[in-house]
Amino acid sequence: MMTKRSFTFLSLFLMVMFLTGCNAKTQTPESVAAEFWQAVIDQDMEQAKSLASWDSVDYLKYIRSGQLKPERYELGEVLKGDRTATIETMLYSQPQGQASVKIPGRTVLLSTEHGWRVDLKETIGSTVKETVGTVFDQLNNLMQDGLKGLDKQLSESMKGFDKQLSDTMEEVGKALEKGTEELRKELEKSPFNDITPTPQQVPEGQRI
Question: Where, by residue number, does the polypeptide cross the bilayer (predicted)?
Answer without folding.
Answer: none
